[in-house]
């Protein structure tokens, strides 16, 4: 799909004339999503896909997390973007930024400023399941950049993005915040392959990844003293109650976040303190959860350069550049810049 651009000639007047939002679907709208959720809850272990964290409350709580003293990833990624945005814009020559899982897009203006300074900024496409965030970001950024056109997409970037938007533009497709870590190893290669297939030869892909580091640093980041991550985690049960008419008792579940060194990932769980019987009307399901039988709500995989290069390779992407903070510091976070690997036809043409 090529989105209709809000206007063929960028306008500097009323910001709302440079803004359009396409609501493809919201969580819970669709039968296949219900089937997916049902299967996940009945799995071993029971799971809730992490996209359900992000109703309005969850999105606001996530923003609070990004400001916590223990939560280093957002600050580290912001620092990297500030240091490298001009170089990224210079090498990619992008005119359009497509941002997957944009959320509150608090780091996005660093890239947009660099694009504007280079005289190339035309279009921004935030894609997120959180409708309130997409609307807020679209309004804020059309107000901030007098010529920018914003085409927001509300939907699941796995299910509702059969084609990358803004075809014909020179696109930088950004996937920041290490959201890629929320996919399992096979899923993430599959997802990136799908992105790579949609990319033109001039498009570039920018991925933010959290790096493997000492377990105590990771543990602190996901078990903050103020308890905001615990509140964020339990909010997913509130989403289940509201969207799927469930009767989870939020306070009956304990937040647990542990680093699994073999898989190199944080796992976030909600563990019932006592036996729970939960009715989920929209799924026609009664869930029996004995005390201690946790629900897995998020995985957050940690990477290094070799694992990102392998993931790119598997997905048909070439890793062009790797940006890390001062290597003398413990590697905290990195940005990987890639492109679609050239396709060579069987005849060699
Ligand atoms: C970890 S946050 C990162 C937000 C922002 N990019 C940042 O770097 O701070 C993940 C974001 O992806 C969105 N998200 C998660 N799963 C999604 C999905 N399947 N489809 C679309 N958006 C999704 C969430 O709503 C949230 O805004």
**SSE ordering:** EHHHEHEHEEHEHHEEEEEHEE
Task: Summarize the main sheet.
Answer: 8 strands, mixed
Shape field: globular
Radius of gyration: 20 Å
What is the CATH architecture term of the domain at 15-26 and 66-214 and 302-340?
3-Layer(aba) Sandwich
**Number of E strands:** 13
Instruction: Please bin the fraction of helical residues.
Output: 25-40%
Which small molecules are bound? S-adenosylmethionine
- The computed structural class is alpha/beta
Helix segment tally: 9
**End-to-end distance:** 27 Å
The CATH homologous superfamily of the domain at 15-26 and 66-214 and 302-340 is called Vaccinia Virus protein VP39
Mean pLDDT: 92
Which regions have little confidence, pLDDT < 50, spanning 5+ residues? 1-11
Query: How are the strands of the largest sheet arranged?
Result: 1-4-3-2-5-6-13-12
CATH class of the domain at 15-26 and 66-214 and 302-340: Alpha Beta
Helices and strands in order, then pairings?
Blueprint: E1 19-23, H1 31-41, H2 56-66, H3 72-92, E2 96-100, H4 108-117, E3 123-128, H5 131-144, E4 149-154, E5 171-175, H6 185-198, E6 204-210, H7 215-222, H8 228-243, E7 253-260, E8 265-272, E9 276-280, E10 285-289, E11 295-301, H9 305-315, E12 317-324, E13 333-340
Parallel strand pairs: 1-4, 2-3, 2-5, 3-4, 5-6
Antiparallel strand pairs: 6-13, 7-8, 8-11, 9-10, 12-13
Helix pairs in contact: 2-8, 3-4, 6-9
The protein binds S-adenosylmethionine (SAM).
